[in-house]
Amino acid sequence: MTPYIELQNLTVTEKNGGIYAYRDTGGDGRPLLLLQHFRGNLDNWDPALIDSLSADRRVITFNNEGVASSTGVTPRTMSEMARGALTFIDVLGLDDIDILGYSIGSFIAQEILLMRPNLVHRAVLASAAPQGAQGMFGWAADVIGAVGAPDTSPQQYLDVFFAKTDPSRLAGQAALGRIYGPHKNPDEPTHRR
Question: What is the pLDDT of residue 50?
Fold first, then answer.
């Protein structure tokens, strides 16, 4: 098994010419598609998580349209992002997948489940929320201040995605060492456009 930080950055082109960047562990069985957090790219997945998940299955991470090394314009709604993800899934010829959505990726996962429920065998929604109701718009100021900026620092990432407890902070520091550590084939930053 090739460690996640050593995987090649692959691309696939959809029928209208859009290019999606992705990494594929190439394992056997039902593929697990990972949907990333806001402003996340291929390098923002914890390599230890991907390596663990791919020990006995195929895991695919990707940049949705307009994100980092994928071409196009970043969609403005969750439904548009889900359609972009479905285009990527279709171009790869996948028809039976599991999905793991993290943060904004969990919102996209929910849209995929509504649009194409027969595509997904199992879904994991991490750091998820429902669509919301009247008066529930946007993110908390500290969240948007950290991940809404063109570059999220490791400290801001830690503050947003890990609880303010000693065990969580220690786990977060270890994850940051892997996420922000060296990658053999680094991805483009999300702010390149």
Answer: 96
SS (H, E, C) the chain: CCCHHHCCCEEEECCCCCEEEEEECCCCCCCEEEECCCCCCHHHCCHHHHHHHCCCCCEEEECCCCCCCCCCCCCCCHHHHHHHHHHHHHHCCCCCEEEEEECHHHHHHHHHHHHCCCCEEEEEEECCCCCCCCCCCCCCHHHHHHHCCCCCCHHHHHHHHCCCCHHHHHHHHHHHHHHCCCCCCCCCCCCCC
Is beta strand 10-13 parallel, antiparallel or unpaired with respect to 19-24? antiparallel
Tokens (6 digits) for 4: 């996640």
Instruction: For the chain, list residues with pLDDT below 50.
Output: 193
Distance from the Cα of residue 128 to its chain's centroid? 13
Q: pTM for the full model? A: 0.89
Instruction: Let me know if 148 is exposed, middle or buried by CB neighbors in 10 A (0-12, 13-18, 19+).
Output: middle
* Domains defined for the chain, CATH in brackets: 4-138 (3.40.50.1820)
